Amino acid sequence: MDLMKTVQDLIRIPTVTGNRTEIMRAANYIKDSLKHTDTLAEIFESDASPVIFLRNTDTIDFDVIVLGHIDVVPASEDMFTPVIKDGKMYGRGTLDMKSFAAVALNTMEYVVQHKLPIKFGVILSTDEEKGSLSTEAFLKAYPSIKARIVLDNDVGGDITKIVSKCKNPVFVKLIATGKEAHGSTPWDGIDANELLFKTWQNIRKIYPYYAADLPQPQDTWFDTVHFAKISGGDVANIISNHAEALLDFRLTENSSVENLEKNLQSCLEKGVTYKIISSSTPVVMSEENPDILDYKRFAENIMGKPIEFEHIGGATDSRSFAVKGSTVIMHSGSGEGMHASGEYVDIESVKQIADIQIKFLEHLAENKR
Question: Are 94 and 7 in contact (CB under 8 A)?
Fold first, then answer.
């Protein structure tokens, strides 16, 4: 497989989350790219977005699975034409994460063609950017699926770092209910916007505000929240009787949703309630895990430089396997501009991730012979 051509071909397909036509076009491209091998390729469809499921075995009890996604956030039309300059490839999805979806296809081809004696699979979702409902539907259809090791390349932008911890994303809706009145007589009403703001201020006493123009914390491994969306009121001269806010909490493994709820309850002003929209679980891997250390050793040998462990606030779909006891190895190539107009990936890092995956799988296969 021509790895970098595959990357470019995928980027040219504008698989913005929700664009089912283009997503299916990309899914069929992926399926066709492996038809010269004995890969079992399935496009799993449900009420949610499709999932591409590739494997070299009939079983759903895997030695190794690669998890990823092929959907992207919206971008200008020109960003779907990849541009290579100074060792970097620019375009939507270069870093997040079509380059590494292509790596997974390259690895699948290698495993099948070289008949490595490992049970290997690839799962690529198509709505990760909006909550991975497709992954949830897929896992419900395959409730017994498991893997000893999960390779997750959707975690960052620095090949010199292996992620050992991810936070738990918890999304909360605040709902404030007031009393409508004319804007000239506020004493006749109860402003839902004010109730929301007061609750917001109470929350900030527990979860402080951070921004680029403020002092930066030295250690970022603590709970955070940002106010993702706020709405309230319809017209200027009416006291709002309803207001809502969507909050994005990121909790470490030292916290719990139950404790978050206690904190929220203590912050609510009269007339304000909350609802947990979604929650997950943090992914925490031991930095002494033998499989992770083996992978790290191969990566360092290929790169010729040391790799460090790091913690990130972002979430990962691999949490679905972590709760089943899988060892999750979270490692990605280098780049910048994820979700931004200048998104790029370092081309050499893509090739290195591909080499690392293959060397690691060869090592696992050798141990099974």
Answer: yes
**CATH number for domain 168-278, candidates 3.30.1360.120, 3.40.47.40, 3.30.70.360, 3.40.50.720:** 3.30.70.360
- For residue range 262-295, list pLDDT tens digits in order: 999 999 999 999 999 988 889 999 999 999 999 9
Q: What is the pTM of this model?
A: 0.89
Tell me the CA distances in angstroms from 224 to 9, 156, 227, one per residue in order: 38, 19, 10
Q: Which residue has the tokens 């790169």?
A: 303
Radius of gyration for the chain, computed over Cα atoms and rounded to the nearest angstrom: 23
Side by side, which strands form the sheet with 224-232?
224-232, 242-251, 168-177, 272-278
| CA geometry: angle 11, 331, 215, nearest 5 deg | 95
